[in-house]
Design goal:
Radius of gyration: 16 Å
Strand order of the largest sheet: 1-8-3-5-6
Number of helices: 3
Shape: elongated
Largest sheet: 5 strands, antiparallel
């Protein structure tokens, strides 16, 4: 029989950068008892994003963050929206260029991630924030 369940997880960030959230998400998936299905993650913010990326070498996350900072620099004169500082609009653009939603298959009660894959919350603002990620799992 097909079932579905949802939850919302809160994460505190340290400011700009990638934070791995795989263990917390994996624990929730396992707690549902569903063996096969599709997990959807959605971040409820316009200045952060989600991604699946290598979790073995922290240089990968640092390189990604530096690349996006070069692509969309803080304080760029192109942007008018600066209500919360010079990193405000760049954070929105960074979020638009990345993903706010992920879909991950669940097989044998676990996320079907590859050996070196992890789920990351990518905070694009310089200041710490509390972020909410909504999880939805449908399956059997």
């Amino acid at each position: 029989m097909l079932r579905q369940t949802t939850t919302t997880l809160d994460f505190d960030t340290d400011g700009r950068g990638l934070r791995e959230i795989t263990p917390v998400v994996a624990q929730w998936v396992e707690s549902t008892g569903l063996q096969t299905g599709l997990l959807t993650l959605f971040i409820r913010h316009t200045s952060a994003s989600l991604l699946v990326q290598e979790n073995a070498d922290p240089d990968v996350q640092a390189d990604l963050d530096r690349f996006l900072a070069r692509l969309v620099p803080d304080g760029d004169a192109l942007f008018r929206h600066r209500d919360e500082g010079p990193d405000d609009m760049p954070a929105h653009v960074r979020s638009a260029l990345t993903a706010v939603q992920l879909s991950i298959p669940v097989a044998n009660g676990r996320m079907a991630l590859g050996t070196w894959q992890g789920i990351y919350l990518w905070e694009h603002r310089k200041k710490p924030h509390r972020m909410q990620v909504v999880l939805h799992l449908i399956g059997s």
